[in-house]
Specification:
Elements: H1 14-22, H2 28-32, E1 38-41, E2 56-63, E3 68-72, E4 75-84, E5 87-94, E6 108-118, E7 121-130, H3 132-138, E8 142-145, H4 154-167, H5 177-183, H6 188-196, H7 201-230, H8 243-251, H9 258-271, E9 278-283, H10 289-302, E10 306-310, H11 314-330, E11 337-340, H12 346-357, E12 363-366, E13 380-386, H13 393-400, E14 407-412, H14 418-424, E15 429-433, E16 444-448, H15 453-465, E17 469-473, H16 488-498, E18 505-508, H17 514-525, E19 531-534, E20 547-552, H18 560-567, E21 578-582, H19 588-599, H20 603-613, H21 639-655, H22 665-677
Helix pairs in contact: 6-7, 7-21, 8-10, 9-10, 18-20
Length: about 675
């Protein structure tokens, strides 16, 4: 494993390293495990008359005359005309004056780029140029396309990945030989090389299968060993029924659903049963998981114990804190609530930690700040993690270790079919809330093509005029050289022009600094921002009851379960809410798939349909779901392999629980590294 800094690679200085750091890449190992998002395959050239507006295409022809150089303000523009027997297309480059030397009149070449119709004529902007022979060779190559940031393009990343692969020391194979033979798994070093530079689709499939197998294997080995440590573990925190929790439940301004009541009883049985609880509560978006967490924490408080609720974002932690504080004040509940997050001042954190240590707080709400070394609890009996798939198993364990084996409750709104949930959450008992509160209005859905965009923007403007808010989701942060998809930065600029003056449009994405993300979400929650253009970072966001429109661009690029998660950001208030899914591809197959969401708001039904529909090739087009800790694996696309690995893990641990046998020793060593990092991102 090469933990050397990126600056050890030729051509990487501090400035380039800082750009890579924006992508979460700081070491050579990080770079090698930054897998391509998609692969660019050069299609055969088409005739000029067949060029379509929008997609990347190639055309072969002859240059009519020498290229000309024009100036517009501070911009230098190179223009030349390429002609074939069916017509001509204009080739244009911006601020690349040196390219004129490659464009003499009469040259025959192949140009490849995105085509647009401007002022009645076809224009290919910033095309790549090839000799006819070279382009024939390119058609046999699968070129990797990586996540990029401004100032760091795909070519630069590709060059450095090649260099890192050429200069690396080969890793020792850690999977037992008989296991690799049984499942026909590629050798590890081969897989790492071919996931970046496959010669063809078969090589890519072989490389991906091996790396996905590894991700599942390490995750499930870790989870199963946890279960072994926890099973039938006596609890130091045996609770008695708490009348205060019963009173609060009776006084709530709404009736709990039958499913909520059933789950509360399951949790209470665990808390009062004498053994340590390790339970997952899986409930659809809006099913009312938070109130269950509050009632469990109140039961702990009434028994003289502390409880901690860890949320994935500061904004959500603060919202939980404010909602619980308000609820307790309205119903005269005698329990003390405190907030602890990373953005608090040093003095605020010091005071909060002192209050926690002195048991001047019963319910502690926070983020990752809850697991820092300086935080000392007094009789921490219950640990709740909200949206568990955003936390590693290791992080959950660290929080659990803050007490003497506290009860663990995990809340997840990710709809996963039960067969997969049992595998993925192997260290937890599972409760399901499969019923939505009657007071919620069903979201109205529609699937449209790009021709409906203007209507959608007008609809958003009307909703804003009615004092509501809207989300717009794009799959990309910035424009990519090769990936055709809407991006947050440019879409925000477009909406600021298209929507009426007075509507505040801002953007949000995962590469922003945490304090900037928090500030944007807080302003949106406060109603200061009317339209929020975002990547899927809002999938685990803040509750904004006033948001009534969710518009998802390139909806065909997302899995159905993730689309349902995004849709769950709206429909949280008393007003009618809407979800508009834009099928940019225009493909009928994508429309049929999206129509499942059009027909149903049931997350578990949608997840089961997603599982049926995904095929082994879907990872080329569908964005990874972001669940759990996987970089490459997708629990829907790779469901069959997940089940296979689960069976293999059972066999391995049954025969060699400590992975101490000679053939398993290297695997055991790598598993220890994995568990020490608390993350399955790099193997």
């Amino acid at each position: 494993m090469n933990r050397a800094k990126l600056t050890t690679l030729k051509g990487v200085g501090d400035k380039t390293a800082a750009l890579f750091a924006k992508l979460g890449i700081e070491t050579v190992d990080d770079l090698l495990h930054d897998y391509p998002r998609v692969y660019d395959v050069c299609e055969p050239p088409v005739a000029v008359k067949e060029l379509a507006d929008g997609p990347v295409q190639a055309v072969t022809g002859q240059l009519v005359k020498d290229a000309s150089l024009r100036r517009f303000k501070s911009m230098q523009i190179v223009v030349v005309t390429l002609r074939d027997l069916s017509g001509s297309v204009q080739l244009t480059w911006y601020n690349m004056p040196y390219i004129r030397t490659q464009l003499p009149a009469g040259r025959v070449l192949t140009a490849r780029g995105r085509v647009a119709r401007k002022n009645g004529r076809l224009v290919m902007e910033q095309p790549e140029l090839f000799s006819v022979e070279d382009y024939e060779t390119e058609q046999r190559v699968m070129r990797p396309v990586y996540g990029q940031t401004r100032g760091l393009g795909n070519k630069a990343i590709t060059r450095l990945v090649r260099q890192a692969l050429e200069e690396r020391e080969l890793e020792r194979e850690y999977l037992p030989a008989d296991l690799r033979r049984r499942y026909e798994l590629a050798e590890y070093n081969y897989a790492i090389e071919r996931i970046h530079f496959p010669a063809d689709r078969q090589e890519l499939l072989a490389a991906r299968r091996r790396l996905v197998f590894d991700e599942f294997l390490f995750f499930l080995l870790s989870v199963r060993r946890l279960r072994g440590q926890r099973e039938n573990q006596r609890s130091d925190f045996v609770m008695r029924p708490a009348p205060e929790a019963d009173r609060l439940m009776r006084e709530l301004p709404y009736e709990l659903t039958g499913a909520q009541k059933k789950v509360i009883e399951e949790i209470r049985a665990d808390l009062e049963g004498g053994f340590v609880m390790n339970r997952l509560v899986q409930g659809d978006v809006g099913s009312g998981k938070t109130v269950i967490a509050v009632l469990a924490m109140l039961e702990a408080a009434q028994n003289g114990f502390q409880s901690a609720l860890m949320a994935p974002t500061e904004v959500l932690a603060r919202q939980h804190y404010e909602n619980i504080t308000t609820l307790f004040a309205e119903h005269a509940v005698n329990a003390r609530v405190i907030l602890l997050t990373g953005s608090m001042t040093a003095k605020q954190k010091r005071e909060a930690r002192a209050a926690i240590a002195a048991h001047e707080a019963d319910l502690i709400i926070g983020t990752h700040a809850l697991i820092q070394e300086k935080v000392a609890y007094d009789r921490l009996a219950l640990v709740i993690t909200d949206e568990q798939h955003r936390f590693g198993v290791g992080q959950r364990e660290v929080l659990g270790e803050k007490g003497a084996h506290p009860h663990i409750l995990v809340m997840s709104a990710t709809p996963i079919p039960r067969t997969l949930a049992i595998i993925l959450y192997g260290d937890l008992d599972i409760s399901v809330i499969d019923e939505l509160p009657a007071r919620r209005l069903p979201i109205k859905n529609c699937v449209v093509d790009t021709g409906w965009r203007e209507n959608a923007w007008r609809f958003i403007a009307r909703e804003v005029a009615a004092s509501h808010q809207a989300y717009v989701i794009c799959p990309m942060v910035e424009e990519s050289e090769l990936i055709e998809a809407e991006n947050v930065i440019d879409y925000t600029k477009l909406l600021r022009k298209k929507l009426p003056e007075g509507i505040t449009v801002e953007y949000l994405h995962g590469r922003q600094k945490p304090k900037d993300k928090n500030r944007i979400m807080e302003r949106f929650a406060a109603g200061e921002i009317q339209v929020l253009v975002s990547t899927t970072v809002v999938e685990v966001g803040v509750d904004v009851p006033n948001a009534t429109v969710m518009m998802i661009e390139n909806a065909e690029r997302f899995g159905l379960a993730q689309l349902h998660q995004l849709r769950g950001r709206v429909g949280r208030g008393s007003s009618q809410s809407y979800c508009i899914m834009v099928n940019v591809s225009g493909e009928e197959e994508a429309r049929e798939r999206l129509d499942i969401l059009n027909r149903s708001n049931d997350g578990f039904y949608i997840a089961s349909e997603d599982l049926k529909l995904r095929g082994p090739g879907d990872f080329f087009g569908l964005r990874q779901s972001g669940d759990m800790e996987f970089k490459l694996a997708d629990i829907f696309t790779d469901a069959a392999l997940l089940k296979t690995v689960s069976e293999e893990v059972n066999r391995l641990l049954e025969n060699d629980p400590q992975l101490a046998l000679e053939e398993n020793r290297e695997l055991g060593r790598r598993l220890e590294e994995y568990e020490n990092r608390g993350s399955g991102l790099n193997l």
